[in-house]
């Protein structure tokens, strides 16, 4: 026995503290002291090919929290200059041992371990984890009309058998994160330059591989995609036979007094292997018990376990070693994607989701999440190549969406909704949608064809057709619409064409065309009478047939949430320039006039559960006939209001054609704020509208104020919005306190029919 006077290792102790203080965790404190003469008796040997009498072999296995225990072990080995001539490892021990043997400093290893894509998976057995989706949850559509949606694709094997495969409606976040985690483990090895400085042997289920490739090391980890990992066979890396010329340092992260955890299979494997440790010859670096299994405590336990074994380790190892020659571990600055596994039909479409301006790990992360949100794409896998390229494979299959739901309000009543969409990829993305609705007073058929990711992957084209009949509920119309502004119904046959160019990820320009054919039947109260004294000739027919034709250019800037009313962050700006021609009757044409509008908004959240959106807008339509003037197409108040601009003052304002918010020119300031939590929210919207047109049919003057207190619930596409609405002017502003004068409303779903 060597005498061990207390305090004899003060210098070594404080050096240990200084090194560990630079890491993310608290400094590891020495639990034992070792005789200075014992350490001094060990000669300091440089790294060389000189043969040694005794080879020091470090055995690193796996298990829960083992990487943190190993980290403390490595800190202690370097602190006390314990020589390690070779490493035998598997599972998490192989990853830790490979980094250390490549010459990466322990501080950098710990930084890698704390990476967001590593720390949540480190020491966790996630082989069997497949998805985060709940099989019992309702498949509610993510966006659009409230509906239940099923998404599936068909496959045919070589024998001609056809199979159906169901797909999730939202990206499988858990699966994506596990894929990114695997990529980070690979990248952490590929970023290192040079070869193993300490010989490394990887123990697998089938054999032992000397100086393994990085891919073989990652394949031994218990992460998704590895059918067999080092956790299964064997669970611990152990010496096969006793070798008198080998000093075996066997690191076991599970303490002697410890209740095994994990699933039943893993507990059985652990129990069988741990029970045989008594038959293994070597020096065990193992804690007796660990009460606290946090990262800091596990690092401390690994460091202390080496100190406990110094009296056994020092006499058998040959000399000492200085671990000062370390290299810095710099993350990969730029990934070079390789899509060689994709067919030519899918290559360009998949490549469009990779942003060449993204650097570092942001690039694969953004790519994975952006492409996974699209219907034709399902599985995504990414793996590093020896030359540093990032091999990407994406499953691309034609998918079909079938959705059934409904929407409506106390303005247009209840409407059942159905939709079927085919998503297909062949050099470009193609989406064909057949949608329709049928309600108590309205119906519609709305097919759409979208073609995107073509012509330098920035262009998209859309074609659409609307066959609709829209009618307000009589109860709402009688209570809220003046008799002279009412119409019974409107039928539409509209053809839409558009071409959109994405300038960058925030800006876009879109050119739109509309060719319409409308029939509008007015209520009898809104039909004007003859006026023989003023010699005014008016149309007394209760039906108007119009053929609007519109060409427009729309510029959009968006950064943050896309929702114009309930965004929590970001800003947006929209500019609209159009030319409109309203034809009506037999060979009758109104003036060709321009439509000009602009709106901008800014959203922010003062606290986690509050949001504020402030916005401004203006718009006018006019034509030049010597001077600019507002167009006049009809001698009828209801028809004029139908083709005026409609001011979006509050979230509910677009649900019907309010005559007070129909004008040829306006300026607007709006503010809406709310408190919300888990989809529920209480909102207050306010708008000031200045009407540049002095309408004779308007009941309010040119300065109008809109108040809208409301409650809202949202889960994916399912939205309920209910509240009160009141419009006043400067003369009637005091009426806002009279609740009985407010209009009540309830709306289910976010839609825009007008």
Task: Describe what this molecule looks like in 3D.
This protein is α+β, with helices and mostly antiparallel strands. Helices cover 19% and strands 36% of the residues. It has 15 helices and 32 strands. The chain has a 21-stranded antiparallel β-sheet that branches. Strands 6-5-2-1-7-8 form a six-stranded mixed β-sheet. Strands 9-11-10 form a three-stranded mixed β-sheet. Helix 3 (66-79) runs antiparallel to helix 5 (106-113) and helix 3 packs across helix 10. The termini are far apart. Mean pLDDT is 84; it is low at 1-33 and 530-539.
Distance between the termini: 93 Å
The number of helices is 15
Percent of residues in β-strands: 35-45%
Q: Say how many strands there are.
A: 32
Give Rg in angstroms.
36 Å
Q: Low-confidence stretches at least 5 residues in length (pLDDT < 50)?
A: 1-33, 530-539
Largest sheet: 21 strands, antiparallel
Shape: elongated
Category by helix and strand content:
alpha+beta
Helix content: 10-25%
Oligomeric state of the chains present here: single chain
The overall pLDDT, averaged over residues, is: 84
């Amino acid at each position: 026995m060597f005498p061990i006077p207390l305090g004899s290792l003060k210098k070594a102790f404080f050096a240990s503290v200084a090194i560990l203080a630079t890491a993310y965790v608290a400094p590891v404190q020495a639990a034992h002291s070792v005789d200075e003469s014992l350490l001094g008796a060990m000669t300091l040997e440089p790294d060389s090919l000189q043969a040694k009498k005794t080879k020091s072999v470090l055995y690193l296995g796996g298990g829960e929290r083992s990487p943190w225990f190993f980290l403390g072990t490595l800190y202690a080995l370097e602190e006390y200059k314990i020589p390690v001539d070779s490493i035998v490892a598997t599972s998490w021990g192989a990853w830790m041992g490979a980094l250390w043997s490549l010459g990466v400093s322990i501080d950098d290893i710990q930084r890698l371990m704390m990476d967001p894509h590593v720390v949540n998976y480190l020491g966790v057995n996630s082989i069997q984890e497949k998805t985060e989706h709940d099989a019992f949850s309702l498949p509610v559509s993510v966006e659009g009309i409230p509906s239940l949606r099923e998404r599936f694709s068909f496959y045919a094997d070589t024998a001609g058998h056809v199979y159906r495969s169901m797909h999730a409606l939202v990206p499988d976040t858990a699966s994506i994160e596990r894929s990114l985690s695997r990529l980070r483990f690979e990248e952490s090895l590929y970023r290192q330059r040079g070869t193993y400085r300490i010989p490394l042997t990887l123990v697998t289920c089938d054999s032992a591989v000397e100086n393994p490739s990085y891919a073989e090391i990652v394949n031994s980890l218990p992460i998704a995609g590895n059918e067999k990992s080092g956790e299964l066979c064997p669970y611990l890396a152990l010496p096969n036979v006793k070798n008198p010329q080998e000093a075996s340092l066997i690191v076991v992260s599970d303490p002697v007094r410890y209740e095994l955890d994990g699933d039943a299979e893993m507990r059985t494997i652990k129990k069988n292997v741990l029970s045989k440790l008594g038959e293994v010859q070597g020096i065990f670096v193992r804690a007796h018990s660990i009460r606290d299994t946090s990262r800091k405590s596990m690092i401390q336990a690994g460091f202390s376990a080496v100190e406990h074994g110094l009296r056994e380790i020092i006499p058998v190892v040959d000399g000492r070693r200085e671990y000062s020659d370390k290299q810095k571990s710099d993350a990969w600055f730029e990934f070079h994607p390789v899509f060689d596994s994709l067919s030519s039909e899918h290559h360009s479409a998949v490549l469009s989701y990779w942003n060449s301006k993204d650097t570092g790990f942001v690039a694969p992360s953004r790519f994975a999440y952006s492409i996974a949100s699209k219907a034709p794409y399902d599985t995504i896998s990414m793996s590093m190549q020896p030359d540093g390229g990032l091999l990407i494979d994406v499953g691309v299959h034609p998918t079909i969406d079938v959705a059934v739901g409904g929407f409506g309000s106390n303005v247009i009543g209840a409407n059942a909704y159905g939709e079927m969409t085919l998503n297909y990829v062949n050099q470009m993305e193609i989406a064909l949608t057949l949608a329709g609705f049928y309600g108590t007073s309205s119906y519609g058929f709305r097919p759409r064809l979208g073609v995107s990711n073509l012509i330098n992957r920035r262009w998209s084209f859309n074609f659409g057709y609307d066959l609709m009949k829209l009618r307000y509920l009589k109860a709402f119309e009688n209570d809220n619409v003046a008799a002279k502004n009412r119409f019974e119904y409107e039928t539409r046959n509209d053809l839409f064409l558009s071409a959109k160019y994405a300038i960058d990820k925030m800006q876009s320009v879109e050119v739109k065309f509309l060719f319409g054919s409308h029939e509008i039947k007015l209520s009898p109260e809104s039909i004007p009478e003859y006026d023989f004294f003023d010699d005014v000739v008016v149309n007394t027919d209760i039906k108007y047939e119009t053929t609007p034709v519109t060409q427009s250019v729309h510029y959009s800037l968006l950064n943050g949430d896309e929702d114009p009313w309930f965004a929590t962050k970001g800003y947006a700006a929209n500019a609209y320039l159009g030319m409109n021609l309203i034809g009506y009757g037999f060979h009758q044409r109104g003036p060709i006039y321009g439509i000009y509008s602009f709106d901008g908004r800014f959203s922010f959240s003062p606290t986690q559960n509050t949001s504020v959106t402030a916005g401004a807008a203006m718009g006018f339509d006019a034509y030049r006939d010597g001077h600019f003037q507002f167009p006049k197409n009809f001698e009828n108040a209801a028809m004029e209001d139908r083709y005026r601009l409609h001011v979006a003052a509050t979230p509910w304002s677009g649900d019907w054609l309010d005559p007070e918010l129909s004008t040829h020119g306006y300026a607007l300031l709006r503010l809406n704020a709310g408190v919300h939590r888990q989809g529920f929210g209480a909102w207050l919207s306010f708008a000031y509208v200045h009407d540049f047109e002095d309408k004779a049919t308007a009941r309010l003057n040119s300065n109008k104020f809109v108040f809208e207190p409301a409650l809202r619930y949202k889960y994916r596409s399912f939205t309920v919005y209910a509240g009160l609405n009141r419009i006043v002017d400067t003369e009637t502003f005091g009426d806002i306190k009279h609740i009985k004068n407010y209009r009540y409303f309830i709306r289910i779903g976010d839609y825009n029919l007008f």
